[in-house]
C-alpha cells in the first residue's frame, strides 16, 4: 500500500547509524523485517521508527523518549482510515489539525479518518510507544460496514472525502490485543506469500 503518513522526525532529531549512545529505547521490540531508523537530539531525546508496506495496509511502530512535551509534525497525503494504539505513554498524545484536537489515551486505541493535510502529534514527557496502521476505506464495501458500528461514521467520511477529522470511540488495549500486535511485529516477512492474508486476518 502506498505510504501516506509521514512523521517529520528529522525536524527534531538527527538520524544515527550507531546505537551506542542510546539508553531508553534499545530494549523495545523490533519488526522482524523492518530496518529500524534510530534518531537522537542534543537533549538526549531518542526515537525509533519502523514501517511495513503491505498491500492492504501500512504499519508504523514509533517509540519515543523525550524529556519534555514534544510536538512533531505529521503529514497526511491521502485520505485513509487509521488505527492508533497507544501501548505506552505517561499521558495522552494530542492529534491536532487546524481547530480540531483529539486525544489518544494511554493503553487505549481508536480509529480515525484523516483527510490530507498537515497535523501535529504532541507527545508527553517520558517514554511513548505508538503502534498504528492505515488502510483504505474501500475495504468496507457498501452496507458491509454495518457489522462494524463504531466504524460507520468514519467509512462515510472516507466515501464523501470529508475535510474534517473523524474519530471513533476509544477502547481498552487488553492482553489479547498486545499479543496480536506482538505477533504482527515478530512474524511479518517480505518473502511470505501468505503475509497479506495473515495481515488481513490480524487487522480484522
Question: What does it look like?
Answer:
The chain is of the alpha+beta class. It contains three helices and 14 strands. The chain has helices spanning 152-160, 175-187, 195-203, and strands at 5-7, 14-16, 37-40, 46-53, 57-66, 70-76, 80-88, 93-97, 100-104, 108-114, 117-123, 126-135, 166-167, 171-172. Strands 2, 3, 4, 5, 7, 10, 12, 13 and 14 form a nine-stranded antiparallel β-sheet that branches. Strands 1-6-11-8-9 form a five-stranded antiparallel β-sheet, with no helix packed on it. Strand 3 and strand 4 (46-53) form a beta hairpin. The model has no long low-confidence stretch (mean pLDDT 84).
Topology pattern, helix = H, strand = E: EEEEEEEEEEEEHEEHH
Low-confidence stretches: none
The number of distinct helices, counting runs of at least 4 residues, comes to 3
Strand content range? 35-45%
The major β-sheet equals:
9 strands, antiparallel
Distance between the termini: 17 Å
What value does the average pLDDT take?
84
Helical content band: 10-25%
Q: Over all CA atoms, what is the radius of gyration?
A: 17 Å
Number of strands: 14
Any idea what the shape is? globular
Coarse structural class: alpha+beta
Layout: helices, strands, pairs:
Layout: E1 5-7, E2 14-16, E3 37-40, E4 46-53, E5 57-66, E6 70-76, E7 80-88, E8 93-97, E9 100-104, E10 108-114, E11 117-123, E12 126-135, H1 152-160, E13 166-167, E14 171-172, H2 175-187, H3 195-203
Antiparallel strand pairs: 1-6, 2-3, 3-4, 4-5, 5-12, 6-11, 7-10, 7-12, 8-9, 8-11, 10-13, 10-14
Amino acid at each position: 500500500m502506498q505510504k501516506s503518513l509521514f512523521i517529520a522526525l528529522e525536524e527534531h532529531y538527527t538520524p544515527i547509524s550507531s546505537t551506542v549512545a542510546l539508553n531508553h529505547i534499545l530494549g523495545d521490540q523490533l519488526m522482524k523485517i523492518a530496518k529500524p531508523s534510530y534518531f537522537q537530539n542534543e537533549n538526549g531525546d531518542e526515537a525509533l521508527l519502523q514501517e511495513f508496506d503491505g498491500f492492504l495496509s501500512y504499519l508504523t511502530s514509533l517509540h519515543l523518549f523525550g524529556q519534555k512535551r514534544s510536538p512533531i509534525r505529521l503529514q497526511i497525503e491521502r485520505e485513509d482510515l487509521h488505527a492508533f494504539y497507544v501501548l505506552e505513554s505517561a499521558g495522552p498524545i494530542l492529534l491536532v489539525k487546524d481547530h480540531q484536537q483529539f486525544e489518544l489515551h494511554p493503553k487505549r486505541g481508536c480509529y480515525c479518518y484523516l483527510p490530507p493535510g498537515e497535523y501535529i502529534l504532541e507527545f508527553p514527557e517520558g517514554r511513548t510507544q505508538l503502534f498504528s496502521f492505515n488502510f483504505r476505506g474501500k475495504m468496507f464495501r457498501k452496507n458491509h460496514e454495518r457489522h462494524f458500528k463504531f466504524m460507520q461514521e468514519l467509512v462515510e467520511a472516507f466515501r464523501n472525502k470529508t475535510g474534517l477529522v473523524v474519530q471513533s470511540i476509544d477502547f481498552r488495549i487488553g492482553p489479547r490485543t498486545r499479543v496480536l500486535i506482538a505477533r504482527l511485529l515478530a512474524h511479518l516477512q517480505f518473502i511470505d506469500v501468505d503475509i497479506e492474508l495473515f495481515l488481513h486476518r490480524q487487522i480484522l
